[in-house]
């Protein structure tokens, strides 16, 4: 089998293979391996735990471990951006989301859906294929971590503002669009729920705030009896909250 | 450092996130798994950028620039995603993605089966009421 690196630098690869050994890992590799095991374990707990808030807190461990991996790869700016944005804001946003959707504190038995075993099969097959391909392709490739750091703030800033200015500015427009989109999404629901009280007194069955009565036109039935007081109180409840 | 270490870790993290996306039922847990997948891609980008910046004299640092862009896009994605989940929770009272079957094929045949046992003789009156 021919590797892409063999085609480009045959001499460099054999030199690197002569210098490094598979059975004599360096200190950086051992640290990377240990932090990687912790990160992978935290990620596994994140996707398997039945306590929703614990999943968010284990996600903090996984993302923080990834920040340490970036530091070990000498990409320090990315590491601190990871700490600031992921650990600092994304997880807090996720926790806000969990609490605003009234996620149960404690074990919730229906955290996993019924297709768990199919998902496990797909994930294990994908992991086996990806690991096999990656190990086979980069068996003789070493990253040179000596010398000046590849991702210090000076280097990253210089390349970002010399070569990547246009995508950077386009990204700021995208962030603005996302901000406006989030505001529109949360305003539209309020406008919809403030409209129905005018005409939903007569026909509560067709109100959009009735859960499931549209999805199951036949089966919505006995549920619409139970949902009727909810439809009466729901818009008024939201108006009172505002 | 052997390049296989970060590459294998990224592959394993990606497949962990893949399992979470497929197996989780709560929409916010699905968003967490998507974050794991994005972070696996980021680790790959950083590792290959560090490798190429030394091996091939790549002065663009394209991997790290793309990692920063991915992080920013992930932040935007989590904001929009949470806004959508909160809007759905406000309208439907649930963030369970198994129950959001508006666009599923044949949900008319799947849905009433669970209700038919409990609905019983009130079916006709309820149908008239639902269409009114």
Helix/strand/pairing class of chain A, anyone? Answer: mainly alpha
Shape, principal axes of CA atoms of chain A: globular
Low-confidence stretches of chain A: 1-10, 197-242
SS elements, strand count of chain B:
0
Question: What characteristics describe this protein?
Answer:
heterodimer, A: 242 residues, mainly alpha, Four Helix Bundle (Hemerythrin (Met), subunit A), 2 domains, 71% helix, globular, disordered N terminus, disordered C terminus, B: 132 residues, Helix Hairpins, 5 helices, elongated
What's the helix and strand layout?
The complex is a heterodimer of chains A (242) and B (132).
Chain A lengths: L3 H5 L1 H10 L7 H22 L3 H21 L3 H25 L15 H22 L15 H11 L1 H30 L1 H4 L20 H22 L1
Chain B lengths: L3 H20 L3 H29 L6 H31 L14 H13 L3 H9 L1
Summarize this, please?
The complex is a heterodimer of chains A (242) and B (132). Chain A is mostly helical.
Care to describe what's here?
The complex is a heterodimer of chains A (242) and B (132). Chain A has helices at residues 4-8, 10-19, 27-48, 52-72, 76-100, 116-137, 153-163, 165-194, 196-199, 220-241. With 242 residues, chain A is an all-alpha fold. The longest helix of chain A has 30 residues, at 165-194. Chain B is an all-alpha fold and 132 residues long. Classes of the chains: A mainly alpha (242), B mainly alpha (132). At the A-B interface, helix 3, helix 4, helix 5, helix 6 and helix 7 of A face helix 1, helix 2, helix 3, helix 4 and helix 5 of B.
């Amino acid at each position: 089998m021919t590797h892409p690196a063999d085609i480009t630098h045959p001499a460099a690869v054999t030199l690197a293979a002569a210098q490094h050994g598979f059975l004599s890992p360096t200190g950086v590799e051992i640290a990377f391996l240990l932090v990687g095991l912790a990160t992978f374990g935290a990620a596994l707990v994140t996707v398997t735990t039945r306590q929703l808030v614990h999943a968010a807190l284990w996600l903090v461990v996984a993302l923080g471990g990834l920040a340490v991996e970036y530091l070990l790869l000498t990409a320090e700016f990315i590491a601190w951006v990871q700490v600031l944005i992921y650990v600092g804001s994304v997880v807090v946003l996720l926790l806000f989301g969990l609490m605003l959707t009234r996620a149960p504190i404690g074990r919730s038995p229906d955290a996993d859906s019924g297709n768990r075993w199919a998902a496990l099969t797909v994930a294990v097959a994908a992991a086996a294929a990806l690991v096999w391909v990656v190990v086979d392709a980069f068996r003789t490739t070493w990253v040179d971590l000596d010398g000046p750091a590849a991702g210090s703030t000076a280097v990253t800033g210089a390349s970002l503002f010399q070569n990547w200015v246009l995508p950077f500015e386009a990204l700021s427009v995208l962030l603005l669009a996302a901000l406006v989109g989030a505001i529109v999404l949360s305003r539209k629901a309020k406008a919809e729920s403030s409209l129905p009280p005018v005409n939903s007194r007569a026909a509560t069955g067709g109100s959009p705030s009735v859960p499931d009565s549209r999805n199951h036109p036949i089966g919505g039935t006995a549920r619409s009896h139970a949902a009727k007081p909810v439809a009466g109180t729901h818009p008024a409840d939201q108006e009172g909250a505002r | 450092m052997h390049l296989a270490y970060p590459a294998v870790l990224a592959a394993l993290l990606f497949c962990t996130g893949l399992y979470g996306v497929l197996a989780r039922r709560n929409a916010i847990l699905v968003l967490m798994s998507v974050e794991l997948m994005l972070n696996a891609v980021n680790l790959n980008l950083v590792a290959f950028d560090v490798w190429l910046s030394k091996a091939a004299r790549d002065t663009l640092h394209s991997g790290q620039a793309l990692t920063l862009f991915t992080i920013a896009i992930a932040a935007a994605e989590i904001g929009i995603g949470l806004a959508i989940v909160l809007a759905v929770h406000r309208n439907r009272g649930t963030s369970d993605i198994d129950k959001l079957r508006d666009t599923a094929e044949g949900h008319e045949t799947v849905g009433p089966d669970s209700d038919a046992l409990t609905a019983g003789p009130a079916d006709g009156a309820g149908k008239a009421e639902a269409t009114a």
